[in-house]
Amino acid sequence: MNEDKGLFKDKDGRDTNQRGYVIDPATGDVINNHNGATMFKKGELDERGEVPAPFNVEKHNFNPHRVRGDFEFDRNGKPVISQNNNGDFVDKKGKKIQGEFDFDKDGKPIIKKNA
Questions:
Q1: In degrees, to the nearest 5, what angle opens at C-alpha 58 toward C-alphas 54 and 63?
Q2: What integer pLDDT is reported at residue 60 of this predicted model?
Q3: Are 35 and 73 in contact (CB under 8 A)?
Q4: Which of 6, 45, 83, 88 has a 20 to 30 Å separation from 98 between CA atoms?
Q5: How far apart are the C-alpha atoms of 58 and 75, rounded to whole Å?
Q6: What does the pLDDT look like over 58-84, one tens digit per residue?
């Protein structure tokens, strides 16, 4: 914590809230520390800055890949999404991805930011 300004920073100097989640300093939204995508809006956090359940339950044993998928990221920080033989969108372990998708100019699926 920066004692002078009351701001919180992680070990890499990124802004965090009081619970240690990396945030967008302009909005206070919790963001993905790999690509800066919004994970939780500031209004979804409780008064202590904690993320909603089930994401805050057993966080020391919590594996976000089980909920959101396990992805490789391209050089632009976007997840690489594949399709299985049934045409379902899957993560790198072949697990079906739940959510809404957009498609880039090459027809590759993109997970909608707030899906």
A1: 75
A2: 57
A3: yes
A4: 45
A5: 32
A6: 555 555 555 666 778 888 777 788 888
Please state, in angstroms and rounded to a whole number, the distance separating the CA atoms of residues 27 and 42. Answer: 7
- Are the beta carbons of 15 and 23 closer than 8 angstroms? yes
* C-alpha to C-alpha distance for 67 and 54, rounded to whole angstroms: 10
Q: Output the CA–CA distances (angstroms, integers) from residue 49 to 11, 16, 23, 67, 89, in the order listed.
A: 19, 10, 10, 21, 33
**How long, in residues, is the chain?**
115
- Tokens 């993320």 — which residue? 51
The residue to which tokens 């339950």 are assigned: 57
Q: Which two tokens stand for residue 35?
A: 């690509």
Which tens digits make up the pLDDT trace of 9-58?
A: 988 899 999 999 999 999 999 998 888 899 999 999 999 999 887 777 65
Is the pTM higher than 0.85? The answer reads no
Residues with Cβ within 8 Å of 64's Cβ and at least 6 positions away in sequence, in order, are: 55
